[in-house]
Amino acid sequence: MEGEKRNDTSLSRKRSFTFGAYGGVDKFTCGEEASRPESVQDNILDILDSPVTESKPFLSTSSNQRDTELFEIIEKLQGSRIDEQRCEFPLPLKSQILTIGGDLPLILPSESGGYWIDPPLERLVDMSPSSSYSGSDPESYDIMERDGEAKIYHEFFRSRYHHSFTAVDPALGPLVLSVCLEEEENKIRVILRMRECSLHGVFSVSLFPNIPSAVELAKMLCDRVTVAKFDVVGYLKAPDLITAFDEHRVSPNFKFGILYQKEGQLTEEDILSNNTESEEFKEFLSVLGETVELQGFTRFRGGLDVCHGQTGSEAVYTSFHGREIMFHVATKLPFTEGDPQQLQRKRHIGNDIVALVYQEGQTPFLSDVIKSHFLHCFLVVRRIQRPEEEDKTVYQVSVTAREDVPPFGPVLPDPPVFTERSLLREFLLTKLINAEISCYKAQRFSRLELRTRSSLLESLQTELSTRSQCMMGDPSLSGLQSSEGVRGVSEGSGGFIENFKRAIRVRSHSFETLGVPRKVAVGASQRPKAEKDGESDKPPGALPHLSDSSGAAELKDQASPQEET
Fold first, then answer.
1. What distance in Å separates the CA atoms of residue 137 and residue 345, rounded to the nearest whole number?
2. 191, 305, 345, 448: which is deepest, by most CB within 10 A?
C-alpha cells in the first residue's frame, strides 16, 4: 500500500511540473482553460490512468474494428523498447478516447505535463465533417524578427560620421556606446550595449544647450550606469566588429525536421525507422519545397553533407520571403540496420529546434515522444477526407510546444483545416519560422543566449579598447600592432568575435553549446555518440553556470563542428 501511495504521489508531482515562465496559459491556445474546473485534457488523463477493469464499452458495434486496431497498438506499445531512449512513456491508451469527436486528436498531451497544445482538446468537440471553415488571409501572416533592432547600427551609423566609446561599469560590466549626430534632422541617435540587451534612443539637439557627454547620454538610456568616463574608440576596423556583435543573432537561414508517422506508430523507434514514402507524403513534401540532390548543392545546406553523401542523396529545400529553409526529412536521411535509435537520423532531427510531423491514419502524436534537449515545438499535419469534398485534399493542423515557449502566430483557423496548397504552404512556413524564433525565448535557450552575449560583449569591449590604445601609440602594446598583419583575413576582421558569431548562427548545435560541462578525463572521441548529439538520458533542466575562469579557448570549443553554408 505504501508503494502504491508513493507512486501516486510521484505521478501527481509529475503532472504539476512546468518549466515556469508562461505556466501553460496561452492566449492563442489555452483560452479559458485555466478557469475551467474540468477539461477534456483532464478527462483524457483520467481515462489513461483508469485500470483496464474499470473501462466500460460504450462504443457502438460499428467501432469494433477500430477498437481492435487500437488494442493492437496498445500491445505494441507495451512490447519491448529501449528504456534509456526516452522518458517514461505514458500509460496505454484506452478505447474510451475514441469518444472525443469520433476521431483521435492529432496530438495527445504528455502525462508528465510541460507542453501546451493548439488547438486545445476542447475545441476538437466542435470538429465535424460538416463544420464550416475559412483560412486566414496570407497577407496577415507576419514573420517574426529575432532581433528587430540588430541592424540599426548598420543602417543609421555606418553611413554617417559617428563615435563609439567603451567602459567597464562596476555593476553592469562592459559597455559599448555609439553616438551619431544626424544634422539634417537635428537629432542625436544613441545605442548603449549591455550584457542583458542593447538600448536605442533618439534625442532632439534642441533639448540641450550643449552636446551631452558620453556619460550623460548613457545615463539617459539607463539610469543604472555609474561610470565616470568612457574611453574613445580609435580603431579603424571598429565598425566591422560592432556590426558583427549587433547582428550575431540575425540569420536568413533555417532548418527544420520532418517526421513521418504511419498508422499505429507511437514510439520514437517506429517513427524514425520509416524508409518508404507514400504518394500522399511525397505530395505533402512538394507543398513545402522542392526535392534537391545534395551532391554539389550550393545553397544553404542546413548541416547536410553535399560532398560525400554521408547524410543521404536528397533533401527538401525552399526559399521563402528572402529566407532559405532546409528540411531534415527523416525518410531521406541514412538508415542504419540494427540500430533501433537511428542515430544517423536523430543527430540531425534531434538537434533541430522545431520539427514537423506528417501523420497517416488516426494515430495521435505524443508531445514528448521524441527525446531531445533541443526540440521545443512540433507542428503536426494530418490529411483528412471530408464527405462533401471528396475531390479536394484537406489538411488538418495542430501545434504543441513546451510550456515556456511563448505563443506565436499566425493563429490557426477554426477549425484548423486547409484545402488550398498555397495557403497551407504560406501558413506552415511562417509558423515554423516564428516557432523557432519564439523557442529562443524559452528558459534553456535564453540562458544560453545571455551567457553568450555577455562573453561576446566582453570580448568586443576588450578588443576595441586594446586596439584603440595601440592606434594611439601605447608603447606597451606595440607587439600587438605588429602581430595584426600576421593574422588571417577572417581572424583580422573579428577574430574571437567571428568564432562566436558562427557558434550562434549555426543551428546544428553541439551538446556542449547547451552549457553542459565537458568531462576532462574523457576525450571527445570517447564520449557516447548520443550524448554528443544532444540525446543523452539526462532530463532537460536549468543550464549549469559556466565559471568565470572558463577561458576563451573553452568557449570557442563550444561552437558546432559543422559549418553550415
1. 36
2. 345
